[in-house]
Amino acid sequence: MSKITFTIPGNPMGKQRARTLKTGHSYTPNETVNYETLVKMAYDQLPDKCYFEGQLKIIITAVFGIPKSTSKAKAKLMLEGKMRPTKKPDWDNIGKIICDSLNGIAFHDDSQIVGGCVRKFYGEVPCVRVDLEEDCHEN
Q1: Nearest to 42 by CA among 91, 2, 9
Q2: What is the pLDDT of residues 108-121, one digit of tens each?
Q3: Confidence check: pLDDT of 11 > 80
Q4: Which is it for strands 26-27 and 3-9: parallel, antiparallel or unpaired?
Q5: Could you say which of 10, 11, 73, 75 has the lowest number of CB atoms within 10 Å?
Q6: Are 64 and 81 within 8 A, CB to CB?
Q7: In whole angstroms, what is the distance from residue 29 CA to residue 86 CA?
């Protein structure tokens, strides 16, 4: 069974909605385009990357930096996972931007993903860890 794990450095980001101009032209915000490029670069740097053909499962762990104004007591709770982020971006938008970014480079289409989860934590070093593997379960 094939499995890969990689990390995207920096603060987690969610997929932003496409913007539409008065002319009717739609475009993707630059922040989204830049983050999708960062995800692709992180995947491309893997020495053992592969292209998945079948059904997949994905686990995305978003690690947010601890705000500087946080008390030591709260920071301790955050690092222990007892206090987790309830701020934006929403978990589903984090998953969306990661999965959309991997379309065409890790797999044909994110419709191949049949299961997964997105988890949000605090940590000393903000990043997003992605675990992607074939899902060989028959039922």
Answers
A1: 9
A2: 999 999 999 999 99
A3: yes
A4: unpaired
A5: 73
A6: no
A7: 24
Confidence of residue 138 (pLDDT cuts 50, 70, 90): low
Beta bridge partners of 123: 65
In which residue are the tokens 């496409």 written? 18
Nearest residue to 111 via CA among 38, 32, 59, 58: 58
Mean pLDDT estimate for the chain: 91
Q: What is the 3-state secondary structure (H, E, C) of the chain?
A: CCEEEEEEECCCCCCCCCEECCCCCEECCHHHHHHHHHHHHHHHCCCCCCCECCCEEEEEEEEEECCCCCCHHHHHHHHCCCCCCCCCCCHHHHHHHHHHHHECCCECCHHHEEEEEEEEEEECCCEEEEEEEECCCCC
**Using CA atoms in the order 18, 109, 51, 6, what is the torsion angle rounded to 10 degrees?**
40
Compute how many other C-beta atoms are within 10 angstroms of the C-beta atom of residue 42: 18
Q: 102 Cβ partners below 8 Å, 6+ apart?
A: 39, 40, 43, 110, 132
